[in-house]
Amino acid sequence: MQQEIAHLVLKDDMSYKLAKSIHNNIISSVGAVDRGIKRGNYQVLRDSSCPSVLIETGFLTNYKESVNLSKNSYQNKLANAIVKGIQEYISMNHNINGVNIQILLYLILYIIFC
Questions:
Q1: Predicted local confidence at residue 114, as pLDDT
Q2: Quick count: other Cβ atoms within 10 Å of Cβ 19?
Q3: Long-range pairs for 13-20 at CB < 8 Å and ≥24 separation?
Q4: CA–CA separation, 97 vs 23, rounded Å?
């Protein structure tokens, strides 16, 4: 049985493109059931001034997903899929409102992972 991965929630067209890229990479990387990309009016997304997505990588209330989410190897697959999705998005959209998003996203990733 394939597991389900939660949906990505987004707010606009640029966010949709980012979500689609990340979503496709997650689905192909971990072999999850595709639950789609959803739109939502969440403050964390609504108040953002740049393309943004909310990623739910699984449900802790689902036994199989909670076991997978506790494994370093699974977490690494998810993280690599997210990074690859961001890289694909960057390669298609170098500038937004004059800001080089490649540089901006690399800085954000550096801050998060270091």
A1: 47
A2: 25
A3: 14/51, 14/93, 14/96, 15/45, 15/51, 15/52, 15/53, 17/51, 17/89, 17/92, 17/93, 18/51, 18/52, 18/53, 18/85, 18/86, 18/89, 19/53
A4: 24
- Give the CA-trace dihedral at 97, 110, 17, 71, to 10 degrees: -170
Q: What is the pLDDT of residues 9-68, one digit of tens each?
A: 545 778 888 899 999 999 999 988 788 888 878 787 777 777 788 888 888 898 988 999
Helix (H) or strand (E) holding 99: strand 99-100
State both tokens at 92.
């298609």
8 DSSP 8-state letter: E
CA angle 5, 51, 28 (to 5 degrees): 30
Both tokens assigned to 56: 């739910």
